[in-house]
Specification:
Length: about 725
Amino acid sequence: MINIHSKTLADLEFTGVLEQLQEHCVTELGKDAALLIQPFSSYNKVLQELTYVNEYFSSFQNDNTFPNHGFDPISDELKLLGIENTYLEVSGLQRISRISLTVNSQLKFLEKFKEYYAELFSLSQSIEYTTIIVEEIDAIIDRFGEIKNNASSLLAELRRSISKVKAKINSSFNAALNTYNNQDYLDDIRESIVDNRRVLAVKAMYRRKVKGAIMGGSKTGSIVYIEPEATLLFSRELNNLEYEEKEEVIRILKDITNFLRLHLPLLHDYQDYLIKMDVIYAKAKYAQSLKAVLPSINKNSEIYLKDAYHPLLYQANSEKGEVTYPQSISLNKDSRIIVISGPNAGGKSITLKTIGLLQLMLQSGMLVPVHERSSMCLFDRILSDIGDNQSIENHLSTYSYRLKQMNYFLKKCNDKTLFLIDEFGTGSDPELGGALAESFLEVFYERGAYGIITTHYSNLKLLANELPHMTNGNMLFNEKTLEPMFKLVVGQAGSSFTFEVAQKNGIPYSLINKAKKKIERSKVRLDATIAKLQKERSKLERTERSLKANELKKLTEAERLEEVNKKVQTKLERFQELYDSNQRLIYLGQKVNDLAERYFNNKKKRELMNELFRLVQIENSKRKKTTVKQQQKEKQEQLRIKKEAEKKIAVIRNKKKKAKKIEKPIPPKPVLKLGDRVRMFDGKAVGTIDLIEKNKAVVNYGVFTTNVSVDQLELVESAKKV
């Protein structure tokens, strides 16, 4: 059973991920559901949810796009359906019809592509496919949102009667209008509308001469609005008919509402299903924005994250156009706990949070921004203690609060637990707090728990070095600029670079030296040794990257040369064929020339013809039988090879001519002197000349010195004049 404490969700800023996730939802209910996401309580549920999201994510990369799943909420309608003797308005019925159509389109789509989206198809199988709801609603409501005339026979009859009465009202009103207008009783506007009825605009002085009901007057009192007596009777009849129409409409709405009450559970399922699909869609879209993938899930309690990004940091940096540095980290049975050390602002905490947050996302059914070859497992518990946890409400100091947390860890920690602790052991006396932290860490280790901690305490670094299934890690720093490189290296503890950072920030060297004398000499030596090892590791990594780049360049060059060699070999074979063909033609020409000379001398025509015929027969016996098209093709190929060769030769000749014309002046060789910064012609390292003697120079590279011939050095920067 998976159990993730709410404090862990807060420590790792899981709510921030949910807020980004809900922006991808297309419905309000989907957004509300996204903000309530929690890690799932069972392994099977986690794996199932991850499969849902991964299948939907795959639809973005093929032509089988899911139909729209957006809908208007029907929560109010569902509440009314649960109350007897209530009825739904037309707008509510339309929302129910639309949500039914939307669900049906989803079900039909998944039925069609169930081989591609097998798990999502299984999810849809719990929802009943039916068209009866849409059909019943469409039978009484038209596309304009009005109750249809044929919704019932009584309604049709009432509306026909209403139309007839309205026609009589108009007819009688028009007659009264013409009569009183001819008698000049009406104002210039003649008529108006009051309470949705046509009335005559009678001049006030003639109001007693016009028979009818007074409906009002103008603000100035000059006009009185009167409904003619002739239309009053028809108006009363119209009111009665409209009242009956309204009653019939309500009866129809009650009937359809009672019908829908029978399908209330199905309508609940419809809305819940579309909310679920909206959340799955949002997870897939969020994964697309993070370039996230589904890593392989193992049951061997192993985590291997390659190129893992912190999702919140990745999104924030993407908006600013800044670079986010990925991390690679591994936890397994042989290396269960990593102790990350190094100076502040180097990325220790963000690395720890990245691992924890990605684990939470995975166990909440979300894809994670890692390399596709990454592998993750599932933990029963994830425990965290991150940040300044001073509790003002409970009057607890930071250290007291952290002790309460460690006590909670001791109760819950086992081999199915991942614990994440930032700045482990801080908040008390360094020696005493460090000793207690070491004891806690030993207990976590003995229980087989997995974890990552960050610390500055040397005793924890030494413990990680001594225990077989625990290892040190550090965040790389540039040894020259002391700027963080935001890269985790496992296998070696990190130096805090305390004195180096202080010196870089302008603290006087005398003060730093005084501080060094106040602490144990062995501590300084240890920290200095660690710092030196980190610098050497950085150099080795740069060298390794350089060697890999050179190796790749050589492989590329070798492939290119192999391709060139093949082309040259092919051309040589073609030239050989052309040469053999020309030699044969020369031989034939020589033979024909000999025969011509012999005929010139003896004038024997028969002998000449016999010799020519014999020569042709000999040549034909050597030939392969070829078609006319093949012969033409061979001639074209020969011409092409000849032209290509002539072009190549012309280019080479032009280059040789230009090379003869342009003679580059040889730059004068600089005279090297003491203090100059130089490097070897075939090297990259830059050093300073400490001594020049007999055409030999002693070059200081900082870490070591070497004797080099002056002829092998090139000037990088001249020594500054004092």
